[in-house]
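Hi everyone, sorry if this is the wrong subforum. Our group has a chain we'd like a structural model of before ordering constructs, and none of us has done structure prediction before. Sequence below.
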Amino acid sequence: MWLEGYCFAAGMGAVLIFLPALGIWSEIRQGSGKSAGSAGASSGQKSIQKNGIRLNKNAYSVNDAGACRSARMEIKMKKYNMLKDSPGKSLFFFALPMILGNLFQQFYNMADSVIVGQCVGEDALAAVGASYSLTTVFIMIAIGGGIGASVITSQYLGAKEYDRMKTSVYTALLTFAAVSVLLGIFGFLMCGRILTALRTPQNILPDAVLYLRIYFVGLPFLFMYNILSSVFNALGNSKTPLYLLIFSSVLNVGLDFLMVLAFHMGVAGVAVATVTAQGLSAVISFLLLMKALRSYGERKEKGEVSYYSTEMLGGMVKIAIPSMLQQSIVSIGMLLVQSVVNGFGSSVLAGYTSGIRIESICIVPMIATGNAVSTFTAQNLGAGSAERVKKGYRSAYGIVLGFGIVIFAVLSVFHRQIIAAFIEEGSGAASFAIGDSYLEFMRFFFVFIGLKAITDGVLRGAGDVGVFTLSNLINLGIRVFVSFRFASIWGVEAVWYAVPMGWIANYVISFIWYLTGKWSRKRIIRVE
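Answer:
Right subforum, don't worry. Here is the predicted structure as tokens:
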């Protein structure tokens, strides 16, 4: 039964085959016939004022004679350039490594649940599930913080301001290293109280607290790993995070089997495996990033690179805080409604846990495409190309619609086999029915989180965070209100009925603001 559940992996792989026909194939064909230099500005010395940023056309020419040789080589080596190639092609192939990497991450997270559920028992699966919503909030804070830093870094990269780009990276790493330590201490001390407040069933509470305390000891490594991945993406390198995720995924699954089957450590074993695998990946990622930054030359006339800038930190915070909210909105919603699910007992919680684990895989391509749109937007606005952003946004619709169709097809065919990977249909009939019901309902609506993600990606990449913050708060409010208000009427199903309501409202609000075009006139950095 375990292997049948992993048929879902094959279904997700089908996404990569069908997407070109479903959304971007026509644009790739058109883009291949165009001159790659058509997106570049003339190399004259004229200055222009656009989008509230002083731009020098010569600074954005791909063949800028003033750019360092290593940076020119980096641009030439990239197969798809966000400033030159067709928007659909560059978006898709930039997002692809992020999608694959995040899928690997989710698969090994799912492996934690599968191994615990099958080898330890239903209560152990419920304990990990009770912890999952809380741990995801902290990781999404890290991802949101990384996006805040990456927007600034991407715009300096687009403007070829390599010294300022490095300063923004160092500022982000130092700041979030300190934040991660504080969050780890907070989580370690407070996790028991939080789980109790969420009405976690008493029979699984000790295991859930144990899992979280081990997790929070290693939180700085897990936190910085996600920040470093965001910085690599900002530099236009989404392959390195992919390779590191593959490495950590394989290592994590191997350690899961070792800790649970050989050492019989149960829930504690999967926590130790996660912390060990991602901690090692964080160290390797940091060393590779330092090496990558050395390949970008400095502009000597502007002085040495600073290792910290409070001015840049202020700009990052303005984007990072709403980005943290946007990235964690699903996780915060799950955490707040967790108490509703907990009230139905550990069997229902185990079924719900299996369902949201699959949901976390289904939203990966949607969130990754939104993050790619954010980087695309930031780099092109940094280079003064607002029209390319609009073209990229239109192309992103085809990508997320393609994902939505394939996810729907896979879940329609394999939903029972997928849930069976977590819970035996005979021995855990109530849990199995809950998880299966969740997937059968949610399969219709994943396209809406994709539409929300790409629209928010444009606003976030432009630094226009006010409206999309509001829309995400409304998303959260709907999920919490419907879950609490209607659980007594509809049962636990009220929790998943609320999810698409929030996604759709979020998308509609952000899209209306996108149509105003005000995002294209936001000012984040000043380039001389």
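For your construct planning: The chain has a mean pLDDT of 77. The first strand starts at residue 47 and ends at 50.
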